[in-house]
Design brief:
Shape: elongated
Radius of gyration: 24 Å
Strand content: 25-35%
Largest sheet: 7 strands, mixed
CATH class of one domain: Alpha Beta
CATH topology of one domain: Nuclear Transport Factor 2, Chain: A
Structural class: alpha+beta
Helix content: 25-40%
Distance between the termini: 83 Å
Order of helices and strands: HHEEHHEEEEEHH
Length: about 240
């Protein structure tokens, strides 16, 4: 085997390794962006304001392009989500938007990317007594620009559009489910009453103070914040809630 052929093979191998490294890097970038987007929407669901704010880049080009206007820079993001960050939204407020069909495009600079998502979910705002009297189903589209700051992907810009929505006059709440379960649990479960039990008898009885029966409860996130690496703030949010019973 000639020296020239060995050098040629080594050159091809080096090129292959570089190509594979580039593909791995792009895969990791897409996964990081996808994780950021999913986390953002989990935080938006119950308006964990500070966690939402931390998803955005500290850049003068940072933009919220909502239908009601635009907010510019990280300060604009903070201003828009200030009420939520202070914990002033009703505990039962919900703005669930599930991102699907995400198409992520990495830009050649390796530092910015674009993403397009369908988002579908429900929105309801309780009245001053905590009762939800109606709500809406919303279908939206995100066009989002992402930027990598200090090796961490963040949101730079959101362009938002609502193709359609539907009003809902009656909306079931966790309290409705909880009341049904607690009432059923209070009935005799030994069969002597002549009634069939509403539910199977559990191995561990229900806890009537379970906050899952309360509007606004956030099932704890198992994952740290994708930008800060810190636990998200649902514990602080849940501490505002009172048990149903």
């Amino acid at each position: 085997m000639s020296t020239e052929s060995i050098e040629s093979r080594l050159s091809r191998l080096e090129t292959m390794v570089k190509d594979q490294q580039k593909k791995i890097s792009e895969f990791e970038d897409r996964e990081a962006i996808r994780r950021l987007q999913y986390a953002y929407n989990y935080y938006v669901e119950h308006m964990l304001g500070q966690d939402v704010i931390d998803c955005f880049a500290d850049d003068p080009e940072t933009t919220l392009n909502w239908l009601e206007g635009q907010w510019k820079g990280k300060e604009g993001v903070k201003k828009y989500f200030a009420k939520a960050a202070r914990g002033e939204n009703p505990p039962g407020f919900m703005h669930q938007l599930m991102p699907t069909a995400g198409l992520i495009t990495l830009n050649p600079d390796g530092k910015t990317a674009r993403g397009r998502w369908f988002v579908f979910g429900g929105v309801y705002v309780p009245n001053d007594k905590g009762k939800v009297e109606g709500g809406a189903l919303v279908s939206g589209i995100y066009e989002i620009t992402y930027i990598k700051e200090n090796s961490v992907w963040k949101i730079l810009r959101i362009d938002w559009f609502i193709p359609y929505s539907a009003r809902i006059n009656e909306w079931g709440q966790p309290e409705d489910i909880g009341a049904m379960i607690i009432t059923a649990a209070d009935k005799p479960q030994d069969g002597k009453s002549g009634e069939e039990p509403a539910f199977l008898v559990p191995d561990i009885p229900i806890d009537k103070n379970d906050l899952r029966y309360v509007s606004g409860y956030i099932l704890p996130h198992h994952f740290p914040h994708p930008v800060t690496g810190k636990p998200s703030t649902e514990a602080k949010h849940n501490a505002r809630l009172k048990p149903l019973s």
